[in-house]
Specification:
Layout lengths: L1 H10 L13 H17 L3 H10 L3 H12 L11 H4 L6 H10 L7 H4 L2 H10 L3 H9 L10 H18 L11 H12 L3 H5 L4 E6 L6 H10 L13 E8 L2 H13 L7 E3 L15 E4 L11 H11 L16 H11 L9 E7 L1 H4 L6 H11 L3 E6 L12 E7 L16 E5 L5 H9 L3 H5 L23 E5 L11 E4 L10 E4 L21
Parallel strand pairs: 1-2, 1-4, 2-3, 4-5, 6-8
Antiparallel strand pairs: 5-7, 6-7, 8-9, 10-11
Amino acid sequence: MSSLGNFVWDIADQLRGVYRPHQYGSVILPMTILRRLDCQLAGTRNEVRALAAINDNPNVLAARIRQQYGLGFYNTSEYDLERLKSDPDGLRANLLDYISRFSSNIDVFERFKFENEIATLAEKNRLLLVVRQFAEIDLHPGTVPNAEMGDLFEELIRKFAEASNEEAGEHFTPRDAIRLIVDLLFAGDDDGLMAPGVVRSVYDPTAGTGGMLSVAEEHLVGTTDTPGLNPGARLRLYGQELNDQSYAICKSDMIAKGQDASNIRLGDTLADDLFAGREFDYCMSNPPYGVDWKASEDAVKAERAATGRNGRFGAGLPKIGDGQMLFLTHLASKMRTARDGGGRAGIVLNGSPLFNGAAESGESEIRRHLLENDLVDAIVALPTSMFYNTGISTYIWILDNTKPSERGQGAAHRRIILLHQDAQEPRRQVARDQRDRPRPQRADLRRPRRPGPRGRRPQPGLCDHRLRLLDHHRRTPPPAELRVQHGANRGDGGAGRSIQGPAEQPGPGNPAGSAGSTRGR
């Protein structure tokens, strides 16, 4: 993948002088999408043109193409990249014709304003050079599987982010972190997931380029070369994304997978939930850290006033400077209800949601809501430097509205599982080791599950040798506020923390020296 990413990146050298490095993505990304679609259509191009000649109704044409060739999109133009490069004089007009003849669900080029880039490239005599080089790349799914294609997009985005001094973490989540979230969410649902023809739903309200959705499908269904847990399963993918270019990449990727393109929607999740009233089996998200929600403020407050405690934001509103906890409560509201089998959610956050906010603040009230409703299942501290261009501490929160029966019932038996980096190991070395951790070792983090309405069965839970496991046996109802105790006086260098209620005292089932994680900056 690195060589393919470097090859595509080298094409950007043709743009020097015409574009600044941080602008390369406006050409390279849509051209990569175009080449991917071009390769997928190669084997059926003539047949599709023949069908288009006798079917004027685009809906009928789309249905027939899907039925006969398994494609979720089509193009009726007489051109492809190979033919385009053979007519340099007509290249601009012919390329515009090509991208305009895609089926209506391919709206990705509009989001990149690609027609403007084509005009600029043609004017600066770069269009033919770029088209020729992309035509040499084989991006057919048989050569570059969907998972590798997602990695290619991630690598390109990382390079563009570095060129523009942006935080790459604003755009996507590293694949290894996603795989850990998926492992944790799916853990223990083996019987249900292995049933013939099983259908599950996954939702990401900050879909980005679709990395989380793709890895979830890879885990369950798998690929041609690497089958997942159940190749006969169907995982329905849903996502909402605010950024036009990320939305375009995500949607094109979902179309290429044969997913329903209408399930990927463009919009501000906080201001306008485009899946209002829908619940999902699994929810995942990596919202932006430390980004204010001023643009959504009026809509969020109006929705909270209208829906009250039962709405997405009924528990409380955090400070305007950081909207992470709004996404946390949003995910909690999107999990399938317990009476329908229950749902689980995983979200990547920095340290702020754990520690910020005094008693009775919006942040405190959100934590109170999650604890009193016994929704927090686990908190996993990720190694530092896992995210590109940043060394902040990050945490995976796992939510579950139907916790395992072996963990007890009622407030007196509530537990939260904490996983954290071992305090004695060098943090940077752990970060590197964690990035390279093979999938079977990530699976060791799975803990015992429950039998449930979807056929879940308990399975042995192990703790990875670099992580320390702690079960908090709650012997009193969950507190109104969390108290964070630093570990400086426990001889562990201050690396550990415990989360416990102010009314609780250390005891056999609730040690004050419980370990947590380093605080996010």
